[in-house]
Write the C-alpha coordinates for this entry.
Amino acid sequence: MSAFQGTAGRDGPDRFGHERGAQGRRHATEHAARELADKYIIVGYGFWIFLLSDIVMFSAFFASYAVLVGNTAGGPSGRDLFHLPNVALETACLLLSSFTCGLASIGARTSSGLWFYGAMTATFLLGAAFLGIEIHEFADMTAHGAGPARSAFLSAFFTLVGCHGLHVSAGLLWLLTMMAQVYAKGYRADILRRVLCFSLFWHTLDIIWVGLFTVVYLMGVWQ
Amino acid sequence: MSPAEPEFAPDYADTAPSDQHGGGHETAESVWSYLIGLGLATLLTIVSFFIARTTLVWQPSIPVALGVLAIAQMGVHLVFFLNITTGPDNVNNVMALAFGVLIVLLIIVGSLWIMSHMNHNMIPMDQIMQMQR
Protein backbone atom coordinates (compact mmCIF):
# COMPACT_ATOMS: atom_id res chain seq x y z
CA MET A 1 0.00 0.00 0.00
CA SER A 2 2.63 2.50 1.04
CA ALA A 3 4.43 1.99 -2.26
CA PHE A 4 1.89 3.95 -4.25
CA GLN A 5 -0.03 6.03 -1.78
CA GLY A 6 1.99 9.10 -2.71
CA THR A 7 1.21 8.89 -6.42
CA ALA A 8 -2.33 7.55 -6.55
CA GLY A 9 -3.57 8.83 -3.22
CA ARG A 10 -5.47 12.01 -3.95
CA ASP A 11 -5.32 12.50 -7.71
CA GLY A 12 -8.42 10.45 -8.45
CA PRO A 13 -9.47 8.55 -11.54
CA ASP A 14 -10.11 11.67 -13.68
CA ARG A 15 -6.36 12.19 -14.04
CA PHE A 16 -5.86 9.00 -16.04
CA GLY A 17 -6.78 10.45 -19.40
CA HIS A 18 -4.17 13.17 -19.21
CA GLU A 19 -1.24 10.94 -18.54
CA ARG A 20 -0.14 8.73 -21.40
CA GLY A 21 2.39 5.93 -21.46
CA ALA A 22 3.92 3.93 -18.66
CA GLN A 23 3.04 6.52 -16.02
CA GLY A 24 -0.68 6.37 -16.88
CA ARG A 25 -0.72 2.60 -17.02
CA ARG A 26 0.88 2.43 -13.61
CA HIS A 27 -1.80 4.74 -12.27
CA ALA A 28 -4.48 2.54 -13.81
CA THR A 29 -3.18 -0.62 -12.15
CA GLU A 30 -2.79 1.21 -8.87
CA HIS A 31 -6.35 2.39 -9.12
CA ALA A 32 -7.52 -1.16 -9.81
CA ALA A 33 -5.63 -2.34 -6.74
CA ARG A 34 -7.38 0.30 -4.66
CA GLU A 35 -10.78 -0.76 -5.96
CA LEU A 36 -10.14 -4.18 -4.45
CA ALA A 37 -10.29 -4.30 -0.69
CA ASP A 38 -7.23 -3.59 1.41
CA LYS A 39 -5.02 -6.63 2.01
CA TYR A 40 -5.47 -6.15 5.76
CA ILE A 41 -9.22 -6.59 5.32
CA ILE A 42 -8.88 -9.62 3.04
CA VAL A 43 -6.51 -11.36 5.47
CA GLY A 44 -8.83 -10.60 8.40
CA TYR A 45 -11.84 -11.91 6.46
CA GLY A 46 -10.06 -15.09 5.41
CA PHE A 47 -8.90 -15.77 8.96
CA TRP A 48 -12.42 -15.09 10.22
CA ILE A 49 -13.69 -17.83 7.89
CA PHE A 50 -11.02 -20.21 9.23
CA LEU A 51 -12.12 -19.38 12.79
CA LEU A 52 -15.75 -20.09 11.89
CA SER A 53 -14.68 -23.50 10.56
CA ASP A 54 -12.86 -24.07 13.86
CA ILE A 55 -16.07 -23.18 15.69
CA VAL A 56 -17.92 -25.71 13.51
CA MET A 57 -15.39 -28.36 14.56
CA PHE A 58 -15.95 -27.46 18.21
CA SER A 59 -19.71 -27.70 17.68
CA ALA A 60 -19.23 -31.37 16.70
CA PHE A 61 -17.37 -31.97 19.98
CA PHE A 62 -20.09 -30.09 21.86
CA ALA A 63 -22.76 -32.24 20.19
CA SER A 64 -20.96 -35.50 21.07
CA TYR A 65 -20.50 -34.29 24.65
CA ALA A 66 -24.18 -33.39 24.96
CA VAL A 67 -25.17 -36.82 23.58
CA LEU A 68 -22.80 -38.73 25.90
CA VAL A 69 -23.11 -36.64 29.07
CA GLY A 70 -25.48 -39.12 30.75
CA ASN A 71 -23.44 -42.24 29.93
CA THR A 72 -21.27 -42.38 33.04
CA ALA A 73 -21.09 -46.22 33.14
CA GLY A 74 -21.58 -46.16 36.91
CA GLY A 75 -18.63 -43.78 37.30
CA PRO A 76 -18.54 -40.21 38.56
CA SER A 77 -20.73 -37.56 36.91
CA GLY A 78 -19.99 -33.88 36.42
CA ARG A 79 -21.66 -33.11 39.73
CA ASP A 80 -19.08 -35.19 41.59
CA LEU A 81 -16.07 -33.98 39.61
CA PHE A 82 -16.39 -30.28 38.81
CA HIS A 83 -15.13 -27.69 41.25
CA LEU A 84 -16.77 -24.36 40.38
CA PRO A 85 -14.31 -21.98 42.13
CA ASN A 86 -11.56 -23.39 39.86
CA VAL A 87 -13.75 -22.87 36.80
CA ALA A 88 -14.52 -19.30 37.88
CA LEU A 89 -10.79 -18.63 38.20
CA GLU A 90 -10.13 -20.10 34.74
CA THR A 91 -12.93 -17.97 33.29
CA ALA A 92 -11.53 -14.83 34.91
CA CYS A 93 -8.04 -15.58 33.54
CA LEU A 94 -9.28 -16.12 29.99
CA LEU A 95 -11.63 -13.13 29.99
CA LEU A 96 -8.92 -10.79 31.28
CA SER A 97 -6.42 -12.21 28.79
CA SER A 98 -8.89 -11.50 25.99
CA PHE A 99 -9.07 -7.91 27.24
CA THR A 100 -5.30 -7.50 27.44
CA CYS A 101 -4.99 -9.08 23.98
CA GLY A 102 -7.30 -6.33 22.69
CA LEU A 103 -5.06 -3.72 24.34
CA ALA A 104 -2.03 -5.37 22.70
CA SER A 105 -3.62 -5.12 19.25
CA ILE A 106 -4.25 -1.39 19.88
CA GLY A 107 -0.62 -1.08 20.97
CA ALA A 108 0.50 -2.77 17.75
CA ARG A 109 -1.70 -0.52 15.60
CA THR A 110 -0.34 2.63 17.26
CA SER A 111 3.24 1.24 17.23
CA SER A 112 3.43 1.71 20.98
CA GLY A 113 6.03 -0.69 22.32
CA LEU A 114 5.14 -0.34 25.98
CA TRP A 115 1.46 -1.13 25.34
CA PHE A 116 2.17 -3.96 22.94
CA TYR A 117 4.82 -5.81 24.94
CA GLY A 118 3.17 -5.10 28.31
CA ALA A 119 -0.27 -6.28 27.19
CA MET A 120 1.14 -9.30 25.33
CA THR A 121 3.09 -10.33 28.45
CA ALA A 122 -0.07 -9.99 30.55
CA THR A 123 -1.97 -12.04 27.98
CA PHE A 124 0.69 -14.74 28.09
CA LEU A 125 0.74 -14.91 31.90
CA LEU A 126 -3.08 -15.08 32.13
CA GLY A 127 -3.25 -17.72 29.39
CA ALA A 128 -0.51 -19.75 31.08
CA ALA A 129 -2.37 -19.48 34.41
CA PHE A 130 -5.53 -20.76 32.70
CA LEU A 131 -3.62 -23.67 31.20
CA GLY A 132 -1.94 -24.45 34.53
CA ILE A 133 -5.27 -24.63 36.36
CA GLU A 134 -6.71 -26.83 33.61
CA ILE A 135 -3.76 -29.25 33.58
CA HIS A 136 -3.93 -29.45 37.38
CA GLU A 137 -7.67 -30.23 37.14
CA PHE A 138 -7.06 -32.96 34.53
CA ALA A 139 -4.22 -34.53 36.55
CA ASP A 140 -6.39 -34.49 39.67
CA MET A 141 -9.28 -36.20 37.88
CA THR A 142 -7.04 -38.85 36.30
CA ALA A 143 -5.38 -39.54 39.66
CA HIS A 144 -8.79 -40.17 41.22
CA GLY A 145 -9.69 -42.79 38.61
CA ALA A 146 -11.73 -40.43 36.44
CA GLY A 147 -9.50 -40.46 33.37
CA PRO A 148 -10.72 -40.39 29.77
CA ALA A 149 -11.01 -44.20 29.70
CA ARG A 150 -13.48 -44.38 32.62
CA SER A 151 -16.74 -43.69 30.76
CA ALA A 152 -18.16 -42.26 27.54
CA PHE A 153 -18.99 -39.08 29.47
CA LEU A 154 -15.37 -38.64 30.54
CA SER A 155 -14.03 -39.45 27.05
CA ALA A 156 -16.24 -36.74 25.59
CA PHE A 157 -15.31 -34.34 28.42
CA PHE A 158 -11.55 -34.75 27.93
CA THR A 159 -11.88 -34.48 24.14
CA LEU A 160 -13.89 -31.26 24.27
CA VAL A 161 -12.07 -29.46 27.09
CA GLY A 162 -8.69 -30.88 26.05
CA CYS A 163 -9.17 -29.64 22.49
CA HIS A 164 -9.81 -26.14 23.81
CA GLY A 165 -6.73 -26.49 26.02
CA LEU A 166 -4.65 -27.49 22.98
CA HIS A 167 -5.90 -24.41 21.15
CA VAL A 168 -4.85 -22.24 24.11
CA SER A 169 -1.38 -23.90 24.13
CA ALA A 170 -1.00 -23.25 20.40
CA GLY A 171 -2.17 -19.68 21.00
CA LEU A 172 0.50 -19.17 23.67
CA LEU A 173 3.22 -20.36 21.28
CA TRP A 174 1.82 -18.08 18.58
CA LEU A 175 1.80 -15.18 21.09
CA LEU A 176 5.50 -15.62 21.80
CA THR A 177 6.19 -15.86 18.06
CA MET A 178 4.33 -12.60 17.47
CA MET A 179 6.29 -10.82 20.21
CA ALA A 180 9.54 -12.07 18.68
CA GLN A 181 8.47 -11.03 15.17
CA VAL A 182 7.49 -7.53 16.26
CA TYR A 183 10.76 -7.28 18.17
CA ALA A 184 12.83 -8.43 15.18
CA LYS A 185 10.93 -6.81 12.30
CA GLY A 186 9.05 -3.90 13.83
CA TYR A 187 5.46 -2.78 13.15
CA ARG A 188 5.46 -3.61 9.43
CA ALA A 189 2.19 -4.05 7.54
CA ASP A 190 2.63 -7.83 7.17
CA ILE A 191 3.48 -8.21 10.86
CA LEU A 192 0.41 -6.16 11.80
CA ARG A 193 -1.76 -8.53 9.74
CA ARG A 194 -0.36 -11.46 11.72
CA VAL A 195 -1.05 -9.64 15.00
CA LEU A 196 -4.63 -9.11 13.78
CA CYS A 197 -5.01 -12.84 13.08
CA PHE A 198 -3.57 -13.73 16.47
CA SER A 199 -5.94 -11.40 18.33
CA LEU A 200 -8.92 -12.80 16.38
CA PHE A 201 -7.81 -16.32 17.32
CA TRP A 202 -7.44 -15.44 20.99
CA HIS A 203 -10.85 -13.70 21.19
CA THR A 204 -12.47 -16.71 19.51
CA LEU A 205 -10.95 -19.07 22.09
CA ASP A 206 -12.68 -17.00 24.75
CA ILE A 207 -16.02 -17.26 22.91
CA ILE A 208 -15.63 -21.05 22.82
CA TRP A 209 -14.79 -21.04 26.54
CA VAL A 210 -18.09 -19.22 27.24
CA GLY A 211 -19.97 -22.11 25.62
CA LEU A 212 -17.73 -24.57 27.41
CA PHE A 213 -18.11 -23.34 30.98
CA THR A 214 -21.85 -22.97 30.48
CA VAL A 215 -22.59 -26.33 28.83
CA VAL A 216 -19.98 -28.50 30.57
CA TYR A 217 -19.38 -27.03 34.01
CA LEU A 218 -22.43 -24.99 35.04
CA MET A 219 -25.01 -27.35 33.53
CA GLY A 220 -22.95 -30.33 34.75
CA VAL A 221 -23.06 -29.07 38.32
CA TRP A 222 -26.72 -28.20 38.03
CA GLN A 223 -27.81 -31.67 36.84
CA MET B 1 -7.58 0.39 7.99
CA SER B 2 -3.90 -0.30 7.92
CA PRO B 3 -1.73 2.50 9.26
CA ALA B 4 -0.21 3.00 5.80
CA GLU B 5 -3.61 3.87 4.31
CA PRO B 6 -4.20 7.57 3.57
CA GLU B 7 -7.48 9.24 4.50
CA PHE B 8 -9.39 7.42 1.79
CA ALA B 9 -12.12 5.54 3.58
CA PRO B 10 -15.56 5.83 2.01
CA ASP B 11 -18.47 4.66 4.14
CA TYR B 12 -19.05 1.53 2.08
CA ALA B 13 -15.47 0.26 2.48
CA ASP B 14 -15.04 -3.16 4.08
CA THR B 15 -13.54 -3.62 7.48
CA ALA B 16 -11.66 -6.60 8.83
CA PRO B 17 -12.98 -8.34 11.94
CA SER B 18 -11.62 -6.65 15.07
CA ASP B 19 -11.14 -3.50 13.02
CA GLN B 20 -11.97 -0.10 14.45
CA HIS B 21 -12.73 2.95 12.44
CA GLY B 22 -12.69 6.57 13.37
CA GLY B 23 -10.33 9.49 13.14
CA GLY B 24 -7.78 10.63 15.68
CA HIS B 25 -9.78 9.33 18.64
CA GLU B 26 -9.39 5.78 17.36
CA THR B 27 -7.26 4.56 20.24
CA ALA B 28 -9.45 5.99 22.99
CA GLU B 29 -12.57 4.60 21.28
CA SER B 30 -10.99 1.14 20.98
CA VAL B 31 -9.99 1.10 24.63
CA TRP B 32 -13.51 2.11 25.61
CA SER B 33 -14.98 -0.63 23.41
CA TYR B 34 -12.80 -3.24 25.12
CA LEU B 35 -13.60 -1.82 28.58
CA ILE B 36 -17.36 -1.91 27.96
CA GLY B 37 -17.01 -5.45 26.60
CA LEU B 38 -14.99 -6.53 29.64
CA GLY B 39 -17.57 -5.02 32.01
CA LEU B 40 -20.57 -6.62 30.29
CA ALA B 41 -18.85 -10.01 29.94
CA THR B 42 -17.84 -9.97 33.63
CA LEU B 43 -21.41 -9.12 34.65
CA LEU B 44 -22.89 -11.92 32.50
CA THR B 45 -20.31 -14.43 33.79
CA ILE B 46 -21.05 -13.57 37.43
CA VAL B 47 -24.80 -13.90 36.82
CA SER B 48 -24.20 -17.28 35.12
CA PHE B 49 -22.17 -18.65 38.02
CA PHE B 50 -24.66 -17.27 40.54
CA ILE B 51 -27.71 -18.66 38.79
CA ALA B 52 -26.21 -22.15 38.42
CA ARG B 53 -26.11 -22.60 42.20
CA THR B 54 -29.12 -20.60 43.32
CA THR B 55 -32.29 -22.11 44.70
CA LEU B 56 -34.21 -18.85 44.37
CA VAL B 57 -35.71 -19.61 40.95
CA TRP B 58 -37.71 -22.48 39.55
CA GLN B 59 -35.10 -25.19 38.92
CA PRO B 60 -36.05 -26.32 35.36
CA SER B 61 -35.68 -22.73 34.15
CA ILE B 62 -31.98 -22.67 35.05
CA PRO B 63 -30.54 -24.40 31.92
CA VAL B 64 -32.59 -22.06 29.72
CA ALA B 65 -31.33 -19.04 31.65
CA LEU B 66 -27.73 -20.32 31.38
CA GLY B 67 -28.13 -20.79 27.64
CA VAL B 68 -29.54 -17.29 27.17
CA LEU B 69 -26.74 -15.78 29.28
CA ALA B 70 -24.08 -17.69 27.31
CA ILE B 71 -25.48 -16.56 23.95
CA ALA B 72 -25.68 -12.98 25.25
CA GLN B 73 -22.05 -13.15 26.36
CA MET B 74 -20.94 -14.55 23.00
CA GLY B 75 -22.75 -11.59 21.41
CA VAL B 76 -20.90 -9.18 23.72
CA HIS B 77 -17.59 -10.78 22.71
CA LEU B 78 -18.44 -10.56 19.01
CA VAL B 79 -19.49 -6.91 19.15
CA PHE B 80 -16.98 -5.43 21.59
CA PHE B 81 -13.91 -7.67 21.15
CA LEU B 82 -14.15 -8.87 17.54
CA ASN B 83 -16.08 -5.78 16.39
CA ILE B 84 -18.48 -7.74 14.21
CA THR B 85 -21.28 -5.21 13.86
CA THR B 86 -24.26 -4.88 11.53
CA GLY B 87 -22.84 -1.78 9.83
CA PRO B 88 -22.63 -1.55 6.01
CA ASP B 89 -18.87 -2.09 6.17
CA ASN B 90 -19.30 -5.43 7.93
CA VAL B 91 -21.72 -7.29 5.63
CA ASN B 92 -19.23 -9.97 4.57
CA ASN B 93 -18.17 -10.74 8.14
CA VAL B 94 -21.77 -10.97 9.31
CA MET B 95 -22.79 -13.20 6.39
CA ALA B 96 -19.91 -15.58 7.15
CA LEU B 97 -20.91 -15.56 10.83
CA ALA B 98 -24.56 -16.26 9.96
CA PHE B 99 -23.52 -19.24 7.84
CA GLY B 100 -21.29 -20.51 10.66
CA VAL B 101 -24.14 -20.21 13.16
CA LEU B 102 -26.44 -22.11 10.79
CA ILE B 103 -23.97 -25.02 10.51
CA VAL B 104 -23.34 -25.05 14.28
CA LEU B 105 -27.09 -25.18 14.99
CA LEU B 106 -27.60 -27.96 12.41
CA ILE B 107 -24.82 -30.06 13.95
CA ILE B 108 -25.83 -29.60 17.60
CA VAL B 109 -29.63 -29.64 17.32
CA GLY B 110 -29.55 -32.37 14.65
CA SER B 111 -27.26 -34.64 16.69
CA LEU B 112 -29.27 -34.24 19.89
CA TRP B 113 -32.56 -34.77 18.06
CA ILE B 114 -31.46 -37.90 16.17
CA MET B 115 -29.61 -39.45 19.11
CA SER B 116 -32.52 -38.95 21.52
CA HIS B 117 -34.83 -40.70 19.03
CA MET B 118 -32.36 -43.57 18.65
CA ASN B 119 -32.06 -43.89 22.43
CA HIS B 120 -35.83 -43.92 22.65
CA ASN B 121 -36.17 -46.67 20.03
CA MET B 122 -33.36 -48.88 21.35
CA ILE B 123 -34.12 -52.11 23.20
CA PRO B 124 -33.23 -51.67 26.88
CA MET B 125 -29.71 -52.83 27.71
CA ASP B 126 -30.73 -55.76 29.97
CA GLN B 127 -32.81 -57.25 27.15
CA ILE B 128 -29.85 -57.06 24.77
CA MET B 129 -27.77 -58.90 27.36
CA GLN B 130 -30.42 -61.64 27.61
CA MET B 131 -30.54 -62.01 23.82
CA GLN B 132 -26.76 -62.51 23.70
CA ARG B 133 -26.88 -65.45 26.10
